[in-house]
Amino acid sequence: xxxxxxxxxxRGIDGLKLENLGxxxxxxxxxxxxKTSILEIIESLERPNDLRAWRLLGRREGNSVRISTTTYDTxxxxxxxxxxxxxxxxxxxxxxNNEIFLVELIGEFSDTILNDEQLDKIGVFxxxxxxxxxxxxxxxxxxxxxxxxxxxxxxxxxxxYSLQRxxxxxxxxxxxxxxxxxxxxxxxxxxxxxxxxxxxxxxxxYEKFVEIMKEFDPDFVSINSVEDEMTHSRKYVVLxxxxxxxxxxxxxxxxMKKAMLLLSALLKAKDGILLLDEFETAIHVSVMxxxxxxxxxxxxxxxxxxxxxxxSLEAINSVLKCCPDMQKDIRMITLVNTEDGVKARNVNAxxxxxxxxxxxxxxx
Length: 364
Fold this sequence. Notes:
Blueprint (H helix, E strand, L loop, with lengths): L1 E9 L2 E6 L5 E6 L5 H10 L6 H9 E2 L2 E2 L5 H8 L8 E10 L2 E16 L1 H6 L17 E12 L2 E9 L19 E4 L11 H4 L3 H14 L3 E8 L6 E7 L6 E2 L5 H15 L4 E4 L8 H17 L3 E5 L3 H9 L8 E9 L2 E8 H11 L5
Parallel strand pairs: 3-15, 3-16, 10-14, 14-15
Antiparallel strand pairs: 1-2, 1-6, 4-5, 6-7, 7-8, 8-9, 11-12, 12-13, 16-17
Helix pairs in contact: 2-3, 6-7, 6-8, 7-8, 8-9
């Protein structure tokens, strides 16, 4: 498991250390304390020297992707805002399975001039509207030069130009610290993006999954994957006693779809890390206990470590209290803005419940 995470420089985070991480880690705090940034850094452990992976992180906005953002602007947004001498860096270390990994992205900004031949070589569309053309077909551009280091060793580099509109894949030999990381956004269920194939091949967990689905629809029977005769793609059909024929999954409410997403994502993350951003979205308070209990109990069986962010006191309460026998394996991490930057308070669920119930301590 990931037991420590030290983010020295990333976005607005400067020197945040998380220690004594558990099987399940609930991260709370005010806006702009870095909750989502922590998930991003953990997700990057899958391929820390892969430009495409960082680009996807930077372009994620909720559940949408800002397609119009250039790779240059996207990567620039990931580096700390205050850059000195046109140099900047993303630096963090992680202790995973008792081994420490230090990741560094060293960035340097500069201005350059590109000619037609250079534009073609780096896969840039020829400048047109909004881009000034100079004599001799020279074009002014900004350059971000990134060098990757892992445990002090060079692990590749990338050059990104402000004029680039096409994405050029890195030629780096990718390094993987954590082989399987699954991220679930707050609204991913609304796009009918699930991991149900993993769930439907595990009979024991599928049986428990059906029990939870009956909390949303007492007449729920099963969910099946069928082929669309027109497109030959796979779609999911839900069988219910209320209807003579199966209904497409997208006919059901957000609560049921979000529960399906969370349960299937846990299976997808087997032997890895599951990241749940604002995990309570669309889950009604009345069923939180059963859904979260299923996830936490099966996380240990599937060797999955979970990091979840939340603003909801009801959801946090539910997670902390749903598995009394596992409270020592659940960590409550609260991020707090101080004069010295963001700091983390970290206690286990047993202590967190005591602080909340007996002393009225605000865990969010």
